[in-house]
Amino acid sequence: MCTAITLAWREIPRKLIRRFQLEERVIQRSEAADKEILFLQRHRQPLLPVFYQGELQILPWGNRQRNSSAPLAWWCDVATLQSGAWAQYHPEPVEILANFGLERGVWFLIREGLQGVLIHDQREQPSVYLLLQPASHYYQVMTGYHREPVFLGEQI
Amino acid sequence: MIGHIDSDCFYVSCERVRSYTLRGVPCGVLGNQGACVIAKSYELKSYGVKTGHPIWEAKKLCPHAVFVKRDFRWYEVISRRLLDLLKTVSPRVEYYSIDEMFFDASELQRYFQLPLPDATRALQTLVQDEVGVPVSIGIAPSRALAKLGSDAGKPFGVHIVDRENCESFLRSQPVGELCGIGRRSERKLQDRNIHTCWDFRQADRLLIRDLLTIKGEALWWELRGDAVTPIQTSRPPHKAIARGGSCGGKTSDPERIRAWAVRNIERLIEALDHHRVYARHISLQIDANKTALWLGRTPLAVPSASFRTIYDAVMPMLSAAPKDHLVSHMHIIAENLVWRDRIQKSLFFEDAQSPLDELKRNINQKLGRFAIRSAETLPLHEIYHDTTHNYDICDVSGKMCF
Fold first, then answer.
1. Which of A5, A11, A26, A30 is the best residue to mutate to test the B interface, defined by the most B CB atoms within 10 Å of its own CB?
2. Record's superkingdom (chain A) (predicted)?
């Protein structure tokens, strides 16, 4: 699955950068390139930048806590969602904002963003899951992985 | 004076026009299969990534590089913008390739009201501002010198080759840098102690003609500042038109091979329609690992651009091709072309195009390429799920070379 995304530093409001201590996650691919904030699945506190309720929010990426009623996962398969298996969690569609994604060591361009679902647990704590679908031929050759994120407004 | 404008890492620059975040990022453009780097930014090049490198090697050399899928339709949009802009500055422009153009630079000074070096810089800035891609420009008395100048100026440079600096410039350029001198020709020249462009220019004209034929001699004149090859504002008629390329990986599956043949026939007919010509011969070339495995040629009874006629010519050739190799590439070539308005109608053969061909063309022009296509191409489902496969570099019309 897509294990990291980045979003341009300039696209994230300063107050969010301060509140979630995102300065620690700043990367720059070259001197001439823009600074980016790295959202890694392996971070101690995995987060995702999400457009939700009309604004950009930084929300937890998936759920690792066993005492939460939300599924213990990072992602959700489109087919699983469509089958209704997650209906009990009342998933809401959200847009994950991203410029680049990482899959098996390959960084790829994301033009608009990724599709995700948001779930609230019994304590009303939100978790965002990346939606995955079977990979296109191109994506599979490029990354060597058989599933790809659901891209907004494009297919790669 | 002749100018040559050459875009710097064109495909990457086009991607940067619409994706600001790619600026300054080591970036590679991948071919349609997603396996090979077909263009790279200067940042990626500095890590040793070369055109043609597979992605698994490129990502090792530069783990933080970003890879983008090619989109020739977008690159053509940018290319046409550059062409249109250049036409406002120059009275004559040659659309040499998608990222290179020759132009008559005689009006440059008057247009910008500046001396030639400043006017050339002004043109470079204008292109950067209006089109959004960085370009290098060479200005010289001939095409070969102008092209050498822009190549030497890369990236984002300007080079004016005139009488004063010509000798020192040509001495600094290896003869292999000349457009039209391949590796074999370079070896031939080096055997005669011709190493630099200046050596080439100073060599005996008849020796060059002996070694490299009349094309080599034309280069020899061009290096002396004689513009023997004029700027061509429109493309001369094609001698042959081919459509084809990779089969999306090696395959021995007869259904897929036939599907690729039919798709290539449909693309070929589209090109024949665009250029208003009919074919008198159809050839089929099948490659395995870039080695020609099979080449067949069939004459048509009458000049044609009919799907049925070309299909009937190709399929027997395909059946006769050897089956014991995996097929990697395929090309279908229309030869001996004739203008559509210059053929004699026949009483005994079917028309050069049927009403069905015309209907298919009209629907596809209205709804998009391959909206109506042969059912025999259905095994290529992965191609039809991905619209970027509908457009290839050879589909960019009007340019002089590939």
1. A30
2. Bacteria
ipTM associated with this complex: 0.95
Q: What are the start-end ranges of the E strands in B239-311?
A: 240-251, 277-288, 291-304
The candidate with the shortest Cα–Cα distance to B182, out of B190, B193, B170, B171, is B190
Give the residue from chain A lying closest to B55, CA to CA. A142
Long-range contacts of B398-402 (CB under 8 A, 24+ apart): B398/B95, B398/B234, B398/B235, B399/B95, B399/B96, B399/B97, B399/B98, B399/B235, B400/B94, B400/B95, B400/B96, B400/B97, B400/B232, B400/B235, B401/B96, B401/B97, B402/B97
What residue spans of chain A are helical by DSSP H? 14-19, 78-83, 137-143
CA distances from B94 to A25, B162, B235 (A): 49, 22, 8
CB atoms within 10 A of CB B171: 13
- pTM of the predicted model, to two decimals? 0.90
User: In 3-state terms, what secondary structure has residue B138?
Assistant: strand
Domain boundaries, chain A: 4-149
Between chains, do B23 and A33 touch, taking CB under 8 Å as contact? Answer: yes
Q: Is B164 a catalytic residue?
A: no
Q: CA-based angle B198:B201:B202, to the nearest 5?
A: 90
Q: How many CB pairs under 8 A join A and B?
A: 80
Q: Token match 């696209």: residue?
A: A11
**Cβ-contact B105, B123 below 8 angstroms:** no
Dihedral (Cα; B217, B219, B225, B226), 10-degree rounding: 50
- Cα A124 to chain centroid distance, Å, stands at 20
Long-range pairs for B40-44: beta carbons < 8 A, 24 or more residues apart: B40/B9, B40/B12, B41/B9, B41/B12, B42/B8, B42/B9, B42/B155, B43/A29, B43/A30, B43/A32
Q: Which residue of B has its CA nearest to A38?
A: B64
**Chain A residues interacting with chain B (CB cutoff of 8 angstroms):** 8, 27, 29-34, 36, 99-100, 105-109, 111, 136-142, 144, 155-156
Which residues, at least 6 apart from A112, have a Cβ–Cβ distance to it below 8 Å?
A151, A152, A153, A154
Q: Considering only CA atoms, which of B339, B169, B144, B288 is closest in space to residue B227?
A: B144
A142 to B25: CB separation less than 8 angstroms, yes or no: no
B15, B76, B100, B217: the catalytic one is B100
Contact B23 A30 (CB under 8 A): no
Phi first, then psi, for residue B195 (nearest 5°) are: -110, -35
> Averaged in consecutive runs of 10 residues, what is the pLDDT profile of chain B (402 residues)?
95 96 96 90 96 94 96 95 96 94 94 95 97 96 94 92 91 91 91 93 93 92 90 89 88 93 96 94 88 86 93 94 87 94 78 89 92 93 81 86 78
